[in-house]
Amino acid sequence: MTAVPDVPNTATLTISCPDRQGIVAAVSQFLHNHGANIIHSDQHSTDPEGGTFFMRMEFHLEGLARARESFERAFAGVVAEPLNMAWQVSYATQPKRMAVLVSRYDHCFLDLLWRRRRGELNVEIPLVISNHEDLRRDAEMFGIPFHLVPVTRDDKTEAEAEQIRLMHEAGVDFAVLARYMQILSGDFLQAFGRPVINIHHSFLPAFVGANPYRAAFNRGVKLIGATSHYVTEELDAGPIIAQDVVPVTHRETPDTLMRLGRDVERQVLARAVKAHAEDRVLVYGNKTVVF
Amino acid sequence: MTAVPDVPNTATLTISCPDRQGIVAAVSQFLHNHGANIIHSDQHSTDPEGGTFFMRMEFHLEGLARARESFERAFAGVVAEPLNMAWQVSYATQPKRMAVLVSRYDHCFLDLLWRRRRGELNVEIPLVISNHEDLRRDAEMFGIPFHLVPVTRDDKTEAEAEQIRLMHEAGVDFAVLARYMQILSGDFLQAFGRPVINIHHSFLPAFVGANPYRAAFNRGVKLIGATSHYVTEELDAGPIIAQDVVPVTHRETPDTLMRLGRDVERQVLARAVKAHAEDRVLVYGNKTVVF
Amino acid sequence: MTAVPDVPNTATLTISCPDRQGIVAAVSQFLHNHGANIIHSDQHSTDPEGGTFFMRMEFHLEGLARARESFERAFAGVVAEPLNMAWQVSYATQPKRMAVLVSRYDHCFLDLLWRRRRGELNVEIPLVISNHEDLRRDAEMFGIPFHLVPVTRDDKTEAEAEQIRLMHEAGVDFAVLARYMQILSGDFLQAFGRPVINIHHSFLPAFVGANPYRAAFNRGVKLIGATSHYVTEELDAGPIIAQDVVPVTHRETPDTLMRLGRDVERQVLARAVKAHAEDRVLVYGNKTVVF
Amino acid sequence: MTAVPDVPNTATLTISCPDRQGIVAAVSQFLHNHGANIIHSDQHSTDPEGGTFFMRMEFHLEGLARARESFERAFAGVVAEPLNMAWQVSYATQPKRMAVLVSRYDHCFLDLLWRRRRGELNVEIPLVISNHEDLRRDAEMFGIPFHLVPVTRDDKTEAEAEQIRLMHEAGVDFAVLARYMQILSGDFLQAFGRPVINIHHSFLPAFVGANPYRAAFNRGVKLIGATSHYVTEELDAGPIIAQDVVPVTHRETPDTLMRLGRDVERQVLARAVKAHAEDRVLVYGNKTVVF
After folding, report:
1. How far is CA C212 from the centre of its chain?
2. Is the pTM for the entire model greater than 0.90?
3. Where does this protein have coiled-coil stretches (chains A, B, C, D) (predicted)?
4. Looking at residues A167-190, what average pLDDT do you find?
5. Nearest to A206 among B205, B239, B287 (CB)
């Protein structure tokens, strides 16, 4: 697999399909015939005796920039349709557009903005949405439009509609809840129609819901953690993308657990967002393949 | 704090009492007046505004071997009673006597026996009790009496009574369930009257009960763990002593999770047992202080 | 140990002295006699058969705010001098004043400023000194005076003199090299006369000096790390305060190692700086006790 | 990729060759044409702009058991020679034969024997070689022939010749130094002609050579580790396969570091040996790709 770092002609193909013999051969042969160089290739079979096959191929193809449509049409006809694939191609010149929703805690929020600024996170951040004013100044320091959408018990539906309107208008590809404290309604996900990544401040499935640090303190666990997952209708129950923990002792209080947990939260969320932005996360059932 | 490693005159004092000013002074002054050298000293307050105070002092006292009774009587009168302490003294010449209960999985069981043989774990193991024959030969290779006590749904009460009889007879100070697969009845704990340490093959409070590796597989967690805790009436709910995790990916199956988990289980159980054997674990409420 | 969180009357006493019997008793008795409540107490003996004894006691003493001098004089006379102690008292109302030196990499620098802003790091940051302009705007966004002190091979002595002048003028208690890329001369440490904490981007003592990520890449290690230590005359050889690692695979390049390493660097530096700020680090020989 | 777990017809193909376009296609097409099902596929390019390409394909092929020669001949002619590949096929029915060399420490040695007994490690262990008698009984309890080959400064050459003779006679595929304390001569590796895996009780490249725990203690590191690597002529300098660390504090002594380090050593060695046994380790330069 060889490639020259030539962004306009670099792309990532992700595939899932019913597992059967010959898929790797078909895809790599197709790419080879088109003169593509494979930069990275990953695959996974969920079940050796049938099941689902997942593949991610990052490749470089001279002239791809001008020939996307014909490339995709050819792939569909020659490989994807015969093999009954769900697939997509992401182009290196078009990073995903990510909305950040945040309430008042700044740690995950700032960490994401800063990673993007440093070039670690290859996304566009067209807007930040918050239900509080607190983080407006920080967003502006990063040059990102900040939209205040307050939420009260009575107007949740209107607030959500406004959030979705703002995100659709900005052509957002996915949203990140970076310690956004409001619970999204089931309708939200339907109406938004794009992936939503959340960070939950516990090691799921332990301590679902509110106040996980206090619950962890009461249980006397010796590790606390954070989990990043895709949001589904059921609270804190969606496909897990990344998790990590940190050891704690009897000396901790709920406050110090919260402090220690912050570092885990921001590392875990950043890892999950980066994986999603790079098309390395594929969902099946309520689980993920993370290449 | 200075001490000469002189085992007959070395002891560990553990204390818990209502927190108040002056406890450290009282205890250290008492020891100083008796000519004791403090080797290690640890303390913990559960709540800066009152609460419970815990202390562990390892000390050396010339002549202690011959004067235990008078030492303990003096301590009781001068310090413990005025300060309303629960306390005990463990003597280095008398390691705790530990029973091991195991079913068919050998990994935790062998790990404990081997650590003791190597001198890492300072306990006596007067007996092994199992509901299967599988591990008899291994126990005998370590020179430890093996007792088969089969358990069926109908005779659980008799089986438990036999286990307790064997352990009381052997003067056992605590029992370790080293992947012992039978659930102990509430009566057992009452009748046994000593601490029981269990290893549960998940990161509690996640995946309580049976088949936690399969449950972890289904949830798609990215870390699996093991938890060692004191057994209480409620299953997998007792005070946690030690926990650890290992990262896993989408490539794992329930079988490989079980394999990866075994290494975590034996490390965690060994850590908990060693802490208990060294009087470094103090229980309050449903939590532990682990010095 | 009981205390009311009453900052004006809270202090931390740190001690080191030749180990001998009776030190804990003497110190706790002194505090008790003065009506102090001990909040936290930690001690360590470097050698059970003699050696050095270290202690850290955080306490609350009604009226301390007005009686510091007499308290310290009493302690000196009654305890410290007879026991030949090196000691100091830090008062909760006077957080340490920390200078940050940084070159162009912003990750450790920003992480420290954020933590302080969030209240996690209890220090004053009176100034930032840099040999480049890059981070001026970031410092100003945090409201911290930024001083550009360029360094070239010819004027290192003048540059260092200027840095020291600035820091002495600002009453700085310690300096942090947050990926400050210039090597400090031996004279600097003498002239500055305060502790200097550095973050080195490898797991010392491996990969001392320049380009540790490239060296790690060439050696093919499967973990990379970061080390925070006190600066001494010998490069990267001073007492280690904190270290951590992250696993890496054959897939990494020197660039991705650098990216992965950044997260470790900032966590490790923050941990070390926080420990120092809280008087939890005591140096002996070329090593540290970190309570 | 689909496969039926049918051991006689399962094999693993490992490849390295100059990187170029079309390799994945060529190999997967070849396998597909022969009716093989790919179970697992991993690849790695050392350099996107040329360099070396590595691949490991685990596959199932009906009738392979009877047709190995023709399969290999076909692969050589159609794929390997045109693409200038170094390659080999391992057959699932023929686990590698592993010799264990050990001195007096039993922890790594016992851990390997247990794992094999439990079915975790798919190797044959035809013999154990030791320069001391201590572990004979343990080897015999596992039913493995134990050979005492004493080594003194004068007779090292003869001792090594005897070790190699024993291993060649037993058809050993690789040797594991499981805390074997003698340093092998450069001639040994030449004469043995097979891979040798060592466990070094430090985090290389720190603390090469003897007494790494004491060296770690003196340096005051806050993590200790272990490294498993292929043995080369230069001591502790060969390609690293696996590493891990455990945190330590100022409370440790060289003895407790040794105790804590043992658990890391055995985990790391087991991980490396398992990877090698499963053909997941490919060497290039002085580094490894570990699939």
Report:
1. 23
2. yes
3. none
4. 96
5. B205
